[in-house]
């Protein structure tokens, strides 16, 4: 597992929302023994703030037996209950209130956390106190992937989007089935290399978007410099999408992040770079139509775990750097090292 001292900052940058003041700045990751404790603490901070400002309202569909028509009349239950002779009908209508998909998901997540044994008793008690501050009409939604996707489609703004990312990560670290007492078990998501690779990639890209102004930062699709007898055959070529591209009129850096515990792998009695990673970056550089006056270069960036490296090559006329960054150092050191990569 890659050692990480500032998981909090990694997540904030990965989700493109770094809280800048107040209680957020007092988050000390060293006091949390498990990542779930940190995620829960962050969720509580954001939820308290949302409750102070007032939970967002939205329209939710309700079904009621009414004496006055409202919205749509549901004929099947109305006839089945023989309501028409009573001057009543079952109606479906939209009502403005706090019982929105996001609020119900947030309430459902808090209820799951309040029951798990993976949190200290004091933190579970605080979760229950915050959950008790929700209005009674908010019905906690099931803690499911379907519910998360439903809320994700709403494209929530800043604070709500940040809390949704926390709920999503908490869900992704939950084991498939709860225990016999209805408590959900969780695993340490830092051991999930696929998930951490996604977080690491977004962290690096958003860090450069937020912390420097010299380069335009994007993830771009590179077209193959290829020809075919049948133009349709070109569609079969694999996509080339960069993790991070930093560009000025004079310089372009293709930065590929790789979340591996080592930038090398053993080959007989020697250590060598991981060849598919180097081939991929080289393909990006070879197929990049850069202007004549623009310097094109590539960087392979790994977290430093078992080895550190800072290797420089010229491949096919392009400067290429293979470098590791220590994520287990104070945040100021991580920020300085990243900025030095493109200085």
Automatic annotation (TrEMBL):
Among Pfam families, the record links this protein to:
McrBC
Which species expresses this protein natively? Hymenobacter koreensis
Q: Answer whether the UniProt record assigns the keyword Hydrolase to this protein.
A: yes
UniProt cross-references to PANTHER family, sorted A to Z: PROTEIN MCRC (PTHR38733), TYPE IV METHYL-DIRECTED RESTRICTION ENZYME ECOKMCRBC (PTHR38733:SF1)
**Name of the gene encoding the protein in the UniProt record:** mcrC
- Write the lineage as a comma-separated list: Bacteria, Pseudomonadati, Bacteroidota, Cytophagia, Cytophagales
Q: Which UniProt keywords apply?
A: Endonuclease, Hydrolase, Nuclease
Q: Can you say what this protein is called?
A: 5-methylcytosine-specific restriction endonuclease system specificity protein McrC
Is Hydrolase one of the keywords? yes
Q: Which domain of life is it from?
A: Bacteria
- Give any GO molecular function from the UniProt entry: endonuclease activity
